[in-house]
């Protein structure tokens, strides 16, 4: 399990994520991380955090946000709030590295676990070009991460039903949780 100061990398999205504060550090109140994205790097497909508000602050470069289908490019020093239940995604809109700090409130364990699992899938080559694992792998981790994030479509109730059905199939076929390699540890 990662801890504050650790960094993990997603070879598909190009994202390097450094954990600044985990939910365990804050008693479940907040989770903070810094994401560094090379040109063309992105955060993944459009998604929703059903129970958490998310706050972003751009530290460097140009960040292209899509929030409820409205696109907006922010530069260093600019911020954006994404309330719980809002579909969104973001990526690097510039020619230089883009760095952004994001914070979730509240911060259950599923928040940190989400990044470890999805980066692990990417590190193991178990995702497509949009950084999505296949349906059986999503079903395998769904109970561990769906409190943190769901896909923007289809509706969450459809996803919950589908992945509840597919989860035992994934286990019966021998699917396993990925292992996420930590790129660096705090000194």
Give a quick summary of the entry.
The chain has 187 residues and is α+β, with helices and mostly antiparallel strands. Helix content is 23%, strand content 32%.
Fold topology:
Elements: E1 7-9, E2 16-21, E3 31-37, E4 47-48, E5 53-60, E6 62-67, E7 70-75, E8 79-82, E9 88-92, E10 98-105, H1 109-123, H2 135-145, E11 150-151, H3 156-172, E12 182-184
Antiparallel strand pairs: 1-2, 1-12, 2-3, 3-10, 4-11, 5-8, 5-10, 6-7, 6-9
Task: Explain what the structure shows.
The protein is of the alpha+beta class and 187 residues long. Helix content is 23%, strand content 32%. It has 3 helices and 12 strands. The protein has helices at 109-123, 135-145, 156-172; strands at 7-9, 16-21, 31-37, 47-48, 53-60, 62-67, 70-75, 79-82, 88-92, 98-105, 150-151, 182-184. Strands 8-5-10-3-2-1-12 form a 7-stranded antiparallel beta sheet, with helices on one face. β1 (7-9) and β2 (16-21) form a beta hairpin. α2 (135-145) crosses α3. The protein is globular and about 50 Å long. The relative contact order is 0.21. The model has no long low-confidence stretch (mean pLDDT 96).
